[in-house]
Design brief:
Chain lengths: 122, 113
């Protein structure tokens, strides 16, 4: 069974940094792209970032470009999201999701983890 | 990139059929046959229901079907059941000059009366 378990969320002040992790199991991790998707309180889903199977290609949503960095360690079956210069509007539940392809382009998301909560507040 | 437009809510009685629309632009829904649909029960992980516009993953009921016409994609739930009550989101690949980009819909709350 495919499992994705996010961790690393918490309460952080505006302008600070935070690193999220996603531990994957139940599939050949380095065969698939991975993505981060978030949901702000009372809002809809927003794609945050994606990374190809071999880390060769990454992409970001406009609202996080230049502030967030997605990475992966295939030896550890782990996905990461390093978040810098956090803003109040980054407050959200952050989900890790497995892609259906090796490339993060032309993809869809299945399955998803349960999410980790990030709250940015002074 | 603007969110795809979905109705805020749709309701139906058990056994009825409902359709959720998802309207984008020629730059996303209209350009790619890459719309996916997700069911989200509060407090749980979102679940893929449809991919590539009309394909169902293994294990998803055939009561769920997807289609697309021009810039609008649709999700139809037939034989509505109580467990179908949830939020539903469409998502489209939106191309990009920087490798990849995706846009989600605004979300639709489905209520089973």
């Amino acid at each position: 069974e495919v499992q994705l378990v996010e961790s690393g969320g918490g309460l952080v002040q505006p302008g600070r940094s935070l690193r999220l992790s996603c531990a994957a199991s139940g599939f050949t991790f380095d065969d698939f792209a991975m993505h981060w998707v978030r949901q702000a309180p009372g809002q809809g889903l927003e794609w945050v970032a994606g990374i190809s199977w071999n880390t060769g290609s990454v992409a970001y949503g406009d609202s996080v470009k230049g502030r967030f960095t997605i990475s992966r360690d295939n030896a550890k079956n782990s996905l990461y999201l390093q978040m810098y210069s956090l803003r109040v509007e980054d407050t959200a539940l952050y989900y890790c999701a497995k892609g259906a392809r090796g490339a993060a382009a032309f993809d869809w998301f299945d399955p998803w983890g349960q999410g980790t909560q990030v709250t940015v507040s002074s | 990139q603007s969110a795809l437009t979905q109705p805020a809510s749709v309701s139906g009685s058990p056994g009825q059929s409902i359709t959720i629309s998802c309207t984008g632009t020629s730059g996303d829904v209209g350009s790619y046959n890459l719309v996916s649909w997700y069911q989200h029960h509060p407090g749980k992980a979102p679940k893929l229901m449809i991919y590539e516009g009309s394909k169902r993953p293994s294990g998803v009921s055939n009561r769920f079907s997807g289609s697309k016409s021009d810039n609008t994609a649709s999700l139809t739930i037939s034989g509505l059941q109580a467990e179908d009550e949830a939020d539903y989101y469409c998502c489209s690949y939106a191309g990009s000059s920087t490798y990849a980009n995706y846009v989600f819909g605004t979300g639709t709350k489905v209520t089973v009366l």
